[in-house]
Amino acid sequence: MKNAVSRYLLLPAAVVGSLSLFALRPEERVVPDADNAGLKLPAGFGALVVAETGGRARHIATTPEGTMFVKLNRPNASGNGILMLRPGTGGKAEVASGFGKYGGTGIAVKNGYLYASSDQEVFRYKLDDKGQVTNPDKPEKIVTGLINRRQHESKSIALDNDGNLYVNIGAYSNSCQERDRQRGSLGRPNCPMLDSAGGIWQFRADKLNQSYGSGTRYVTGLRNVVGLDWSPQANQLFVMQHGRDQLHDIFPAMYDTKQSAELPAECMYALKKGDNAGWPYMYYDGLQKKKMQAPEYGGDGKKEATGNFIDPVAAYPAHTAPNALLFYTGTMFPEKYRNGAFIAFHGSWNRAPEPQKGYYVVFQPFKDGKPSGDWEVFADNFAGDAAKAAAGRPDHKPCGLAQGPDGSLYITDDKKGTVYRIVYNKK
């Protein structure tokens, strides 16, 4: 230890001040679990179980001070839908308190506030200089009265750097049929639910009691978005859409079971105000790399889509359910990861008789604010083993992502409530 301190004393004071204190305080080192928490990772990375929340942990947010907030799908036995985790030793954490008497998915930290969503509203809580909530029982209600029809109801959120809040309002339908998910049922003309769902709405982050009337329908034609994030490099909102289901079940004469398992792709979109991503009138075929007319609206599995719909910027395997998107801006991981995107795939339920897939976190390289190159599986084996994944009976299901102040990557599991942490072991 004396030699380590001597090396730091030879460096300029400004450099010493910028270095991690972990080297001087070994008791604070992040120690990966011996088995890397059961995960398969690229060389040089390690993982540990940070905490067990005991609830269906959805999204997660961290403060600059290292406090973590986890949103639960439903309030726990104590009636709390948000858990505060306090950093402990060895890189682990403990559940210190809970608040927020509502379930939901969205949670984010921005400019001294914690934002959290139920399935109908968005709240914010003031944070103190320790990164802790000052008003747990009296949050400010930022958005209210959002539609909730018990299908695609989660209200995921993201914030930009200009004081705007973005909220996903998922479509309460698979493909806007007259009879939802029923064989042969055609689409409703001029899909009427797009006036209040099936898109991203923009609100002010500091204005109370906003509703549809005071917000802006920022983008339409998105069936459901659970993962979204603001790219600081591109200064733009990116989202991950859950593509439509059951092509074979609804139109068996047009699609066989394998086509139904492989179509449509789960898509990443880079959004601008006024964009239309095309749901329910089209879907994206990741095999042909074409926008296809939906069978409910005159498609036959071969006809390309007509309409002024934007193209995805990247595509991923069908039905794998991308539930979180995070742009990595830290310095712990190697340079290749800087400004790229991590995506948590919750896993499929409807690829049978083909094997189910997903239950992993992937990395999508970016260059100059755009996807560049092929995506790769970054963290795998949340399912427990390949057989459990193929059968759709995983041990854990990745759901939320957050970047810690030191550059660690946090991942939540909404099956058993595990919180994971991934670190890079510098050589």
UniProtKB/TrEMBL annotation:
Name of a matching Pfam family: TrAA12
Domain Pyrroloquinoline quinone-dependent pyranose dehydrogenase beta-propeller stretches: 41-422
Domain of life: Bacteria
UniProt-listed PANTHER family: HEDGEHOG-INTERACTING PROTEIN (PTHR19328), MEMBRANE PROTEIN (PTHR19328:SF53)
Protein name, as recorded: Sorbosone dehydrogenase
Source organism: Hymenobacter oligotrophus
